[in-house]
Design a protein that fits this description.
Elements: E1 3-6, H1 8-16, H2 23-31, E2 33-37, H3 38-49, H4 59-65, E3 69-71, H5 75-79, H6 84-87, H7 92-104, E4 108-110, H8 113-116, E5 122-124
Parallel strand pairs: 1-2, 1-4, 2-3, 4-5
């Protein structure tokens, strides 16, 4: 596995070195290129603005320091939002992340119960 896409909450777990990250996930992240979607950065900033979490002012710099790579949103990824497996998710950020994972052919690392039921391209971050 060369590349993986991190769900928004997993990004925070990685930056915090959270014990919620499973040993298999930690081992995988040690050798894989881990990507963070522009959608996740957007989602986390929205949650910070609403007071649902605190982000450090240098959040984007911390992503780079952690050697996490940027995944921009492309037209092809946005077009994949209409696929049946993607339509099952109501959260627009989850839908976009899943579509990106499918289009880019990289697993989405998440602990989200709804996303873990997706038919493909999903790994449980707690394992």
């Amino acid at each position: 596995m060369n590349r993986v896409l991190l769900d928004s909450h997993v990004v925070l777990w990685v930056l915090d070195d959270s014990p919620k990250l499973g040993s298999q996930t930690r081992s995988m992240l040690a050798i894989a290129e881990a990507y963070v979607s522009a959608a996740s950065v957007w989602e986390l900033h929205i949650k910070a603005e609403r007071g649902q979490l605190e982000l450090p002012e240098d959040f984007v710099e911390l992503l780079a320091q952690a050697k996490l790579k940027q995944l921009p949103i492309t037209w092809g990824q946005a077009s994949a939002l209409g696929e049946p497996a993607v339509l099952e998710h109501r959260d627009p950020f989850d839908r976009l992340l899943y579509a990106q994972a499918v289009v880019e052919q990289m697993p989405l690392v998440t602990a989200d119960r709804r996303l873990l039921k997706a038919p493909r391209a999903v790994l449980d971050a707690r394992l």
